[in-house]
Amino acid sequence: MADGTQREAGDLRTELRSFIGRHxxxxxxxxxxxxxxxxxxxARAQMRYVGAGGSPKVDDRSTLEPLHFTVSLIHQPxxxxxxxxxxxxxxSFVVLDGVLTVGWSEDGDTVxxxxxxxxxxxxxxxxxxxxxxxxxxxVLMSVMVGHGxxxxxxxxxxxxxxxxxxxxxxxTQPGRTFALSSGAKRPLQEKMARNVIRYRERRPEWxxxxxxxxVYIGHGGIEGGQNRTELITVPKGAGVRGYERPAEETYxxxxxxxxxxxxxxxxxVEERLGPRDLVFNPAGRAHYFRNDxxxxxxxxxxxxxxxxxxxxxxxx
Length: 316
Fold this sequence. Notes:
There is one protein chain. The chain is mostly beta strands. It has two domains: about 30-200, Sandwich (Jelly Rolls), CATH 2.60.120.10; about 200-305, Jelly Rolls (Sandwich), CATH 2.60.120.10. The chain has helices at about 10-20, 160-165, 185-195; strands spanning about 20, 45-50, 70-75, 80-85, 90-95, 100-105, 110-115, 120-125, 130, 140-145, 155, 175-180, 195, 205, 210-215, 230-235, 250-255, 260-265, 265-275, 280, 285-290, 295-305. The strands form four sheets. A seven-stranded antiparallel beta sheet has the order 1-20-17-22-16-15-14. Strands 2-3-10-5-8-13 form a six-stranded antiparallel beta sheet, with no helix packed on it. A hairpin with a 2-residue loop joins strand 6 (about 100-105) and strand 7 (about 110-115). The radius of gyration is 20 Å and the shape is globular. It starts with 8 loop residues before the first helix and ends in a 13-residue tail after the last strand. About 45% of the residues are buried.
């Protein structure tokens, strides 16, 4: 991966393009997780953007090199599930399409929550969690793991040991599963509640530069993550001038189109991003975004540091 030093304009354009993951140029990998082989209900597909995202396929040359986090998409068919497992780092799920049931298990109990589009859960390190599609349409979600090279997951309720009937309940005995609900007093319910963000409950904060932000992970959102995640809305005609960060940053576009630009050696180069395209902005690289499309645009911004925002954005 490039080091963010200044380049001539021609090289800068080539470098920028090499830091963009185009959705239409990628394919879903149905064999991303070897532990799923031979278990049809565990089948799910992964599309990797930054790093391997928990898959052992770290040699995928189509992905961008991770530093402090990974980004991938997961497609899960109706009726399928992921066996309960845990990580040594935090892992977040953002639902893009469908309704996802996520379960956390601890001390023989499981707490489940249903997440819809633009809802997020930050799965705490060390807690066994799984997910299941109980809906009527496939689930598509973005997964962000809070480390560039996470260890393989530790399985707690795999069908190899307990069969599908128990594993689909995340290994919990009947009667020991509880829904996440307001006012619940079980410790695991309270713990999960602190790690769920509902899109409908977020209130935008308008930056002076003319765009709106909703903090999901970080100061003003869920605390305890190694990185910061925000949903950014850029109205038509809005944009910001070039800025730099001491850590890497990605934009993953949800809707609309934006122009992203890099600056270096007195030059600037630009590329357009469409839905489900991603750009990786390295630490120290001057970059900017602008919505010169026909509709408002939204993207998730992930920063490789957890502290509160330090950039003072300036409108174009």
